[in-house]
Design goal:
Length: 357
């Protein structure tokens, strides 16, 4: 099946094969070298002070970041424009008094729309701003640099869910003014699901140091301590997936990160152009549109996706959240190329005609 989904995505043979090496244990030199090289490489890619790999899905990394960010009477502001921003708020509410604002109708979050909510939240005691980098439910690229720069200037810590963003978008802790960041293996990194990466700024490390322990498995103090001791993880990691990620980053490095990002943009722009030619309307305005997830309105969305799968061996991402019943998502993450994308689009065109849409 050709996957044009928002994750898990198709994994290339080299990455899949990387998982099949003879197993090693997580206590010993071989693992320490693997883990150190991986963390150091990611650290450089995102200008982080510290990088940790969590065995768990993207949510595990997000929860680890959130619960290690603030003290006992923490107050967080969460800005959302889709299902995953809403989830950030639900995690935040477990630990903190949470001030929440939801932007509807696929409104992208930039400084213009965020500023009044940040100003108001600061008056109400907020210490942390949380939002998604790339809101996957309709594919919105939020303008985190301008929003986080302002929030940091006002003294807030910043926490960004980049689960479906990096490495399809460039990200830098220093340039983007982000303290806590995370992303997951099964999205743009084109690995199987099961691990997620956390990266931290200097301010994040200070905040973690003074936050209370809220849970053992996701206690980042333990991750930091074990790394300092001998570059191991506190518990048994998914070693095979670390090999997969190592291989995937090696391939990205070979291609060049800038080229990797540009390739996604080129593919997404092509998909948008062709989908519009077919007469579909895109959900997200050009200003906030995504490199990876192209949501479009269609009648009979479930029937259309089912026909694509049974007749053409093509699977698109289903509609999600506010857009569940009215859209499909044509995604260009993972092991896809222009030839596969063209086949996916031709199939979509035929299936649309067959359903009389
Ligand atoms: C932006 C974003 N945040 C969080 C998640 C949750 O990730 P996971 O299912 O890996 O826990 C997703 C998954 O699609 C996502 O796209």
């Amino acid at each position: 099946m050709l996957l044009f989904t928002p994750g898990p995505v198709a994994v290339c043979k080299e990455v899949a094969l990387a998982q099949t090496k003879e197993m090693i244990t997580h206590r010993g030199k071989e693992f320490q070298t693997l883990y150190k090289n991986l963390c150091e490489k990611i650290k450089k890619m995102v200008d982080a002070t510290s990088v940790h790999v969590i065995t768990g899905s993207g949510t595990a990394a997000i929860e680890a970041n959130i619960q290690n960010a603030l003290g006992k009477d923490g107050v967080a502001l969460v800005l959302s424009n889709g299902a995953f921003g809403d989830k950030l708020a639900s995690h935040s509410k477990v630990y903190y008094r949470t001030i929440f604002h939801r932007f509807n109708n696929a409104q992208g979050i930039d400084l213009k729309v965020a500023k009044p909510y940040i100003d108001q939240a600061i008056e109400q005691g907020a210490q942390l701003l949380c939002m998604t980098h790339h809101e996957t439910s309709p594919g919105i690229l939020n303008k985190i640099t301008e929003v986080c720069s302002y929030a940091k200037e006002k003294g807030l810590l910043t926490l960004i869910d980049g689960t479906s963003a990096f490495p399809a978008y460039k990200f830098s802790h220093i340039h983007d003014k982000v303290d806590f960041y995370s992303w997951a293996s099964q999205k743009a990194a084109a690995c199987p699901p099961g691990i997620a990466v956390i990266s931290l700024s200097e301010d994040a490390l200070r905040a973690i140091d003074s936050s209370p322990v809220r849970c053992n498995y996701l206690n980042l103090k333990e991750y930091i301590k074990k790394q300092k001791e001998n570059f191991e993880t506190p518990t048994t990691p998914a070693i095979s997936l670390l090999w997969a990620l190592e291989k995937s980053l090696e391939l990205i490095e070979k291609e060049g990160l800038d080229n990797f990002v540009a390739k996604h943009k080129k593919y997404a722009d092509y998909v948008k152009k062709e989908i519009k030619k077919m007469g579909f309307e895109l959900v997200v305005s050009e200003e906030f549109s995504s490199n990876t997830v192209v949501a479009f309105y269609t009648k009979k969305n479930k029937e259309l996706n089912a026909l694509l799968q049974t007749k053409y061996n093509v699977k698109l991402g289903g509609g999600h959240a506010d857009w569940k019943e009215t859209t499909l998502r044509f995604c260009v993450m993972g092991d896809v190329d222009l030839e596969k994308i063209k086949y996916g689009l031709e199939s979509l065109k035929k299936a649309k005609e067959e359903l009389g849409l």
